[in-house]
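Lab notebook, design round three. We kept the backbone fixed and only want residue identities now. Task for the bench partner: fill in a sequence for the structure below.
Input structure tokens:
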């Protein structure tokens, strides 16, 4: 009979002594891998070979001028006729463009409506500058609007078209196992986020490569240790980046870059046409790279009190020094038109390219897929309170511009999708 693997220390709240906790958990993770009969280096080499093959294929496809990002038509989502090859490509690449998610004229009208909403309410006179360090780095001011409750945003969030695409994306995940239903793929939690409006001629510094599922909590909390169990118990071949087990109930260490909700996919909906060379989103379209990132700090070239630069209150960084292989696969979205939507698996490395003297507008509404689950149900209570008062949601800086805006979206305007998403029905 195989002996049980040694337990891991865990911290459900941010440790007071981060360097000491990092040293402790790294030693325990190495011991756990060793107890499985393999070394960290052996386990890492398995995922490294997998990633190397994916990177080589992505680079070769780019050099041949072939698309890397899968693209599907909304009409196929609605009809249930998405080609099987497109579904396979989505699961392999972890990212997707949905063409015609909304009619182009609808998206352009929403963009105009948002401009009117902000101008009528004196937003630009009241604007106090970026409320966080992360999006404050992009350069053009304001680029990220701390606006959450405009009629345009809420109509998009609660639309049947959005719900269908979110359900399609959620269905790619393994959401039931061991007698537990980890989330409801057919019900979204209406996670409120901001908008981006970048005007023609703008200079923007972009955003460096990073990912958003968490920070040190990914190694240090009991739920995430169970979620990434195959990475650290010697069964790396069984790791499945599409398995939601234990990801929908645990805590996340607080910080200005945290996301309290579990998102299967991050996403945005285009409110303008954008060319692929105009400061757009890039991803490393390899979902399994998450296992590489989780194991990389355990290798001998990383100091014992360092997780490759990951710490609290900052996004999870991906840098040339520790991750040069991964960054070779960084790939831009294709050209998009207003009404298209763009989606990427919650664990994907992503960045936004810098741009100088931008051609055309670069406008988006951030709307993810955040299915109903214990974690999202808890956050929905704070979302309801923010919605009722026009406040900034708890995950975002407490700027509260919309509290006094009389024409923000109202509870009476919620449809059944919206009411379910906010936990009202």
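Proposed sequence:
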């Amino acid at each position: 009979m195989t002996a049980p693997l040694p337990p891991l220390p865990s911290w459900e709240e941010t440790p007071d002594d981060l360097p000491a906790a990092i040293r402790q958990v790294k030693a325990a993770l190495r011991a756990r891998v060793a107890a499985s009969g393999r070394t960290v280096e052996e386990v890492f080499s398995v995922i490294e070979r997998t990633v190397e093959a994916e990177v080589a294929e992505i680079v070769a496809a780019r050099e041949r001028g072939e698309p890397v990002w899968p693209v599907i038509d909304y009409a196929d989502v609605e009809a249930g006729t998405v080609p099987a090859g497109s579904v396979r490509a989505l699961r392999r690449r972890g990212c997707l463009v949905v063409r015609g998610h909304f009619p182009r004229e609808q998206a352009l009208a929403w963009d105009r409506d948002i401009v009117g909403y902000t101008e009528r309410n004196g937003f630009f006179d009241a604007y106090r500058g970026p409320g966080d360090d992360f999006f404050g780095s992009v350069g053009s001011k304001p680029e990220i609007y701390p606006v959450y409750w405009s009629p345009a945003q809420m109509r998009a969030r609660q639309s049947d078209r959005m719900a269908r695409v979110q359900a399609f994306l959620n269905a790619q995940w393994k959401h039931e196992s061991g007698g537990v239903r980890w989330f409801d793929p057919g019900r979204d939690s209406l996670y409120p986020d901001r908008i981006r409006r970048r005007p023609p001629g703008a200079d923007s510094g972009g955003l460096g490569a990073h990912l958003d599922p968490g920070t040190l909590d990914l190694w240090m909390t009991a739920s995430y240790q169970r979620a990434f169990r195959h990475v650290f118990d010697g069964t790396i071949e069984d790791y499945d980046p599409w398995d939601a087990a234990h990801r929908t109930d645990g805590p996340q260490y607080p910080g200005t870059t945290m996301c309290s909700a579990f998102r299967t996919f991050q996403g945005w909906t285009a409110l303008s046409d954008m060319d692929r060379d105009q400061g757009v989103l890039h991803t490393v379209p390899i979902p399994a790279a998450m296992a590489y990132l989780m194991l990389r700090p355990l290798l001998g070239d990383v100091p014992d009190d360092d997780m490759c630069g990951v710490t609290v209150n900052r996004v999870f960084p991906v840098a040339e020094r520790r991750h040069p292989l991964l960054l070779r696969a960084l790939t831009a979205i294709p050209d998009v038109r207003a009404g298209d939507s763009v989606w990427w698996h919650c664990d994907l490395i992503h960045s936004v390219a810098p741009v100088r003297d931008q051609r055309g507008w670069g406008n988006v509404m951030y709307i993810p897929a955040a299915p109903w689950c214990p974690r999202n149900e808890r956050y929905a209570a704070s979302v309801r309170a923010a919605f009722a008062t026009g406040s900034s949601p708890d995950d975002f800086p407490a700027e509260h511009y919309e509290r006094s805006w009389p024409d923000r979206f109202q509870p009476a305007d919620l449809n059944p999708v919206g009411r379910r998403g906010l936990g009202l029905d």
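Keep this in mind before ordering anything: Residues 89 and 317 are 26 Å apart (CA to CA).
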